[in-house]
Each structure stands twice: as structure tokens, then as C-alpha cells.
Amino acid sequence: MQMKIPKHPTLIRRFLQARQKQLQAHCPVLAASLVTIRRVCGNPNCRCAKGRKHPGHYLTWKVKAKTHTAYVPVDLLPQVKQWTQEHRRLKYLVSQITQLALALIHSHVTAKRRRHGRS
Ligand SMILES: [Zn+2]
Predict the structure, then answer these.
(1) Which of 7, 64, 67, 101 counts the highest number of beta carbons within 10 A?
(2) Taken in order 53, 56, 60, 66, is the CA torsion positive or negative?
(3) 67 C-alpha to center of ligand 1: Å?
(4) pTM for the full model?
(5) Distance 52 CA to ligand 1 centre (A)
(6) Which strand ranges, in their side-by-side order, compose the sheet holding 33-39?
């Protein structure tokens, strides 16, 4: 997720501002992964007993290295998908903003050193 970072502090600030503006959530933000799990229902006469398992949608997320799971009803699926995508978008933005903020700090330190005659 490495991005191209400009060298000049003015440009870095411009990049930062553009990303800060995009940092607004357009829907609930869901920090979880959407997965499809195929299961058998237990009825020996059902199609799943012959291998055509029932697909179900679940959310998984981690709390302190422990994985949690929640069932997602199919009618909520489009919304839930959007909420997890919104989390991915914001996470990516935050990682870009972090890289730019660090680059800004770095450029400041370099400029200060130059002014003091050290390099
Ligand atoms: Zn079944």
C-alpha cells in the first residue's frame, strides 16, 4: 500500500488536505470481513446431503486475536457489503495520511538541519 509521496512540504500538505476531505463516512463503517460459508442443514433428504451445500453469509472480525463470527441475513447483504467496503476505503485513506504526515515531519527535520548547516 505504498504510495508516491511528493518531496516538497507544500505538495505534501496539498496531498494531505485532499485526503482529509475524503475522510468522511458515507454509511456505517464496519471493520469486518464478509465471507460465504457452505453448510449442511442436517436433513438427510436435502440436496446438501448430496454435496450441494447451503451458502450462508457471515461477518468475521478479530478482537484480541480471537475471531468472532456473525450471520448476515441475505436481505441485509448489499448494505453490509457496502459498510465493509467503506471501512476498507477509510483504512486505506488513513494509511495514506499516515505516510504523508510522516513525510511532512521528515521534510521538516531535513529542512531544519539544512538551516543549521548540518546535513
Ligand atoms: Zn440442506
Answers:
(1) 101
(2) negative
(3) 26
(4) 0.79
(5) 8
(6) 33-39, 54-63, 66-72
Give distance in angstroms: CA of 45 to centre of ligand 1: 8
Size (the chain), residues: 119
Q: pLDDT per residue over 57-98, tens digit each?
A: 999 999 999 999 999 999 999 999 999 999 999 999 999 999
State in Å: Cα 62 to ligand 1 middle. 29
CA of 39 to the centre of ligand 1 (A): 8
Which stretches of 1-119 are DSSP H helices?
9-21, 77-115
Q: Give residue 49 CA to ligand 1 midpoint distance, Å.
A: 6
The pLDDT score that the predictor gives to residue 28 is: 97
11 within 8 A of 102, measured Cβ to Cβ: no
